């Protein structure tokens, strides 16, 4: 189920778009045909394809986004297919679809996490922690000195300091 090394990988945004489209189409079909299991099948297809074909650095997004994307797609599909009182029908349809698809949602989410673990999810989590702590973006920066030190511009003669650096003692 994993892409071959020479095959193009999807970015995080690409995976989100693919999952959202698959979820929306499967939710619309399930609602139209009255097949509750089709929601879960669409969720499984979208999640596992995204995990299998995502770039390694996008795995964290790909395993955390599907539940929210599925809910957005489900509510959208219920709004499109609602009859009668739109708000009540949408709420009822959404709750019934979530109840019907709960085993699928749980099983596929766990399966996606397992596949992502083998593809490098732990390293993505470590990289994310480093980014949050600020060590990755500013290596060697202690926070006490300015990020970039202004240099004096050299004029045409080579000995005149720029107006920016004039009057400051050199370090």
What is this entry, summarized?
The protein has helices at 12-33, 37-53, 59-64, 66-81, 86-119, 121-133. With 171 residues, the chain is mainly α.
Account of the protein in words:
The protein has one domain (12-133). With 171 residues, the protein is an all-alpha fold. Helix 1 (12-33) runs parallel beside helix 4, helix 2 (37-53) runs parallel beside helix 5 and helix 4 packs antiparallel against helix 5. Helices cover 63% and strands 0% of the residues.
Query: What is the succession of H and E elements?
Result: HHHHHH
| Broad structural category | mainly alpha
Q: Give the overall pLDDT as a whole number.
A: 78
Helix percentage: 55-70%
Question: How large a portion of the residues is in β-strands, by DSSP E?
Answer: under 5%
Strand runs, count: 0
- What is the distance, rounded to the nearest whole angstrom, between the alpha carbons of the first and last residues? 60 Å
The description of the largest β-sheet is: none
Question: How many domains, in number, for the residues?
Answer: 1
The radius of gyration computed from the alpha-carbon positions, rounded to a whole number of angstroms, is 26 Å
Per the principal axes of the C-alpha atoms, what is the gross shape? Answer: elongated
């Amino acid at each position: 189920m994993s892409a071959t090394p020479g095959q193009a990988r999807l970015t995080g945004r690409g995976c989100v778009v693919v999952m959202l489209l698959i979820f929306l189409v499967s939710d619309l079909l399930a609602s139209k045909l009255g097949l509750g299991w089709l929601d879960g099948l669409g969720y499984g297809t979208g999640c596992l394809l995204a995990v299998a074909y995502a770039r390694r650095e996008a795995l964290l997004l790909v395993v955390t986004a599907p539940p929210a994307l599925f809910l957005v797609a489900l509510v959208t599909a219920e709004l499109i297919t609602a009859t009668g009182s739109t708000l009540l029908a949408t709420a009822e349809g959404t709750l019934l679809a979530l109840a019907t698809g709960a085993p699928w949602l749980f099983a596929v989410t766990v399966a996606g996490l397992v596949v992502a673990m083998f593809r490098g999810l732990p390293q993505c989590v470590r990289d994310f922690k480093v980014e949050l702590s600020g060590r990755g973006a500013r290596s060697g920066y202690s926070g006490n000195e300015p990020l970039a030190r202004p240099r004096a511009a050299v004029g045409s003669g080579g000995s005149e300091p720029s107006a920016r650096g004039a009057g400051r003692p050199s370090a």
